[in-house]
Amino acid sequence: MSPASVIFLVVLLGASGLFARQVGKIRRNIGLGRPLDRTDRRAERWKVMARVALGQGKMVARPVAGVMHILIYVGFVVINIEVLEIVIDGVLGTHRVFSFLGPLYDVLIGGFEILAVGVLLACVVFLARRNVLRLKRFWSKEMTVWPRSDANIILIAEIILMGAFLKMNAADQVLAARGHAHYTLAGSYPVSTLLRPFFEGMSDATVYGLERAFWWVHIVGILAFLNYLPISKHFHIILAFPNTWYSKLTPRTQVRNMPRVTEEVKLMLDPNADPYAAPAEGQVEPERFGARDVFDLTWKSLMDAYSCTECGRCTSECPANITGKLLSPRKIMMDTRDRLEEVGRNIDRHGSFQDDGKSLHDRISEEELWACTTCNACTQACPVNIDPVDIIMEMRRYLVMEESRTRPALTSMFNNVENNGAPWAFGPDKRLQWMEEQ
Ligand code: SF4
Ligand code: SF4
């Protein structure tokens, strides 16, 4: 094995190991959530995943951004098929190992190049939308320096990767045309052929050095990109698939029941029930009602937090946000992820979670939580079927049921439910009075 192949193998194994470690931590963090069964209606789940994640079905609701996102997505996925060849070449010391495919290889390389140009253009447009046109949803309050930089870093990285790919191909053609050892005359290069004049006047050694440099930039860039994903919002590239598979399939506005409360109500309505009886077998006593911290949310809400692309479509459709309230469903997801990451670092440091005296409520205020109308415009708009409302509802439940904290407007309704068994200020004996008054 050549020294270059050994170096390549070390880089490849190191980057893959690091990526696996990071994914393992995310998996562990998601597993900190409460259990939730989302394995029913499997056929429907596959369809939702195919339509929303694979087919990007909800992205095209905004056609310009949607079409360009699809271009980047398809281009990036398809072009990375070429990574397979690069990896084999890197390990075995071969060059363009798939060139034996002949005309099919020509079509593949030609297709990759055309897609690479599409990706480049889309990235430039996206950068302009964010930094020159400064679209409002990319500059709202929660889009602080890091979220804005995160988006820019990934777009610039894709431009560098695609640029290295095209320049590598151009240098490759020059070397192949000169009959340089190992450089096979294979592939069609509809785009990079335009860059050939740049290399024509150079010596063989210079062109070879540049071709190798672009090759290494391309593959090391992809491995670096892979390891950047888990610390970035771009992890949605991977999580969009499981996240849509585990989508909520019941009607959007259907609120998840609290089994413990249901049990309590049944007990109250059953004259023969023993209120002091031990819980039935399999019935788990919750430690608390609602969510104080990320541990009290379901694992699906935690997966949602890692799947959020920070696109802001939810916030731009949120009536509370539009009318000037503090609430932003995107911020709810970003805060949940930030808190979950904080908890994860705590576990890394101590081996298990040590109480840090903090909670999710330190990041998400009561004002934000109570601004939500539960209209579900956010869940409808989200391109990866994230459900910020579930987190909002659980956090509200905690405030009301554990802390007895609510909005003044709701206090009388709660009192009426407690005293009259209904939200209205009339006792059960007065319920039919309205008929007498007619
Ligand atoms: S459900 Fe709440 S957070 Fe979502 S759009 Fe409606 S008001 Fe906004
Ligand atoms: S929750 Fe969905 S719509 Fe909102 S920012 Fe995240 S990915 Fe975008």
Describe the structure in your own words.
This protein is mainly alpha-helical and 438 residues long. It has two domains: 3-30 and 62-245; 259-406, Fumarate Reductase Iron-sulfur Protein, Chain B, domain 2. 60% of the residues lie in helices and 0% in strands. The radius of gyration is 28 Å and the shape is elongated. The model has no long low-confidence stretch (mean pLDDT 90). The structure holds iron/sulfur cluster (2 copies). Residues 308-314, 329-330, 333, 381-382, 384, 386, 388 line the site of one iron/sulfur cluster (SF4).
Observed structural traits:
single chain; 438 residues; mainly alpha; Fumarate Reductase Iron-sulfur Protein, Chain B, domain 2; 2 domains; 19 helices; 60% helix; elongated; binds iron/sulfur cluster
In short:
The chain has 438 residues and is mainly α. 60% of the residues lie in helices and 0% in strands.
Helix-strand layout with pairing:
Layout: H1 3-30, H2 42-54, H3 63-79, H4 81-92, H5 103-131, H6 145-177, H7 196-200, H8 204-228, H9 236-245, H10 259-269, H11 299-307, H12 313-317, H13 319-322, H14 329-350, H15 366-370, H16 377-381, H17 388-401, H18 408-420, H19 433-436
